[in-house]
Amino acid sequence: MKHRIALPAAAAAAVLTAAACAPGTGAEDDGRISVAMLQPPRSGLSPHSDDAFKLSRWSTAETLITLDDVGDPMPGLAVEWESTDPTTWVFTLRDGVSFHDRTELTASAAANALNRASAATPPPRILDGVDMEAEGDDDAGTVTVTTAEEDPLVPQRLSSPQLSILAESAYSGDTVDPVGTGTGPFELVEADGAASARLDRFDGYWGEPAAATGIDVTYVPDGTARAAALRTGEADIVEAIPVSQAGLLDEDQITEVPMPRTNTLYLNTEDGPFADPGLRAAAREAVDAGALVDGVYEGRADLAEGLLGPALPWSAQRPGRDEPTGAGDPDGARITLATFTDRAELPEVATVLEQQLTDAGFEVEQEVREYANIEEDALAGEFDAFILSRATVLDSGDPAAYMTSDFSCEGSFNISQLCDEGVDELLEAAERTPSGEERRAAILEAEAAVLATDAVVPLLHERVIQGDAPEVEGSAKDPRERLLVTAETRIR
Predict the structure, then answer these.
(1) Does pTM top 0.70 for this prediction?
(2) Record's superkingdom (predicted)?
(3) Domain 9-60+184-236+469-491 has CATH 3.40.190.10
(4) What parts of the chain have a pLDDT lower than 50?
């Protein structure tokens, strides 16, 4: 039986009405693009929060560095960089860049933005545990970034939308206002809280001017309403269409993008039945992830071969896995299997896994809550097994931080309560390795060590389903969800 949470008809209608009435949506305003987004801002569009990804998806705020397809650093507002010693990096800024408030991008302005992020409370997630300071040299056009400890990922960190470079006028006390203060091809001109946002083409953009005249954003949390907005022509681009709605749309209107996000079964290695490696192996053998892909996700997901999936093409080069631990006999072992409701498919995943584990000889009790009400217990090891949809590259585009967070002895998100000396050594080696092929190989070695513990059973890799009206050209299909409407996006 499928578990779906539907928005009441009146609420869905209200959402669609809001989308229809938003200024400039649909065909009313020639050359403008209407976008229906999943979540409203949670922190007033502060770049120091996850709202930063909205600013980057609208191409209004930019960073010193961008990333290529494999996660290596590329020029953004900085055109070149070098490490002058293990804790110091120097970035040379691009010439001729203006902020939307018509002030010039200077080294001191860029350093100010980075230092404001470093001093924010709480700090941006990308700077969690990182002590970073920036200093600008306006004469040389360079920004020097210093870290307290050696950090080979500084360029990748500076690609995070949470370290976007805004004009000095954006900052007042502890608040940050991105309206009219970015550098991208679109200027944010109006932000109406949790309702909508409006952006206009910025004619002073340093690169190729935007093809569209502007963007009109409406926040539509309900997936059924978002899909309906695309179907009825109220929205040109719709993000995160639920699997349940994808089949109701024309195939030429949707694109499935492999995500660096893995649905994973975490097993508690410290307490309870899964402290026994043999029972962890029994759980691994009991799981049929193909049934989840074909049933719950209706074929719109990728079967997991490891923690990392097709959104990171280099992960296919992983070494062979060591001989797995032999499975023990569950013999009616009682386990608590938990997950959360915020992602509509996960309760159904839990139901399928409960049956599979029961068939293998476990006695299973489910616990399902909203994520905000279950995270603390999951991190405290209150459950024997926990199903999580987990981003695997976080903000730097590099999976080493995720693996350290989830699987090291001191990891801050270690739901499996795993503490393995060999795993820690490989994770530390990967963290120290400079970016590039050598680092990627080290990450895959660490992944193999984690999988060998059976502390985690990767299930599947999600795909995000993006909807585009037939008239839309050039929208970004970005696995990292940093880009959506770019300077090239247009309405035919």
Answers:
(1) yes
(2) Bacteria
(3) yes
(4) 1-28
Retrieve residue 476's tokens.
């970004």
Fold for the domain defined by 259-463: Dipeptide-binding Protein; domain 3 (3.10.105)
Query: In this predicted structure, what is the pLDDT of residue 124?
Result: 86
Q: Give pLDDT tens digits for 134-158.
A: 999 999 999 999 999 998 889 999 9
**Residue 136 pLDDT:** 98
Domain 65-168's class? alpha beta
| Amino acid in the structure at residue 281 | A
